[in-house]
Amino acid sequence: MNKIEHIGIAVRDLKITGDLYEQLLNTNVYKMEEVTGEAVKTAFLQAGPNKIELLEATSADSPIAKFIDKKGEGIHHIAFEVNDIKAEMARLKAKGFVLLSDEPKPGADNKLVCFVHPKSAGGVLVELVQEGYNA
């Protein structure tokens, strides 16, 4: 794993929380997009080398909506950048980590993604991210 790529924060209202984080971090949302496969709208902010991804559910049965219903708004996941997501998935699986998918999926910000179940990662939802859908 190369670095922390971003921290994901589940929010009820992307506009309200986006405005809040723009003021907090003294920077602007630089990208917004919808990931229909995950039923989520995202907004990205960057302060120095650090990125924050705000996540708003687009349906009541999406993973983000379920997370907010159970735990409220707040930190949802931590994402780590990897060079070869399939190799990293195989390495983690061989070490006993539970992955939430067998193959990486297209995610926000032109990334391939895979999540590691929080029960096998000390209670933290971990996201692996690799640059580029076709990588």
UniProtKB/TrEMBL annotation:
Q: Which PROSITE patterns match?
A: VOC (PS51819)
Q: Indicate the family of this protein.
A: Belongs to the methylmalonyl-CoA epimerase family.
Swiss-Prot/TrEMBL keywords: Metal-binding
Q: Which domain of life is it from?
A: Bacteria
Q: Which organism is it from?
A: Mucilaginibacter panaciglaebae
- Gene3D superfamilies xrefs: 2,3-Dihydroxybiphenyl 1,2-Dioxygenase, domain 1
SUPFAM superfamilies, per database record: Glyoxalase/Bleomycin resistance protein/Dihydroxybiphenyl dioxygenase
Q: Name one Pfam family in it.
A: Glyoxalase_4
Residues of the VOC domain: 3-131
This chain's protein is named Methylmalonyl-CoA epimerase
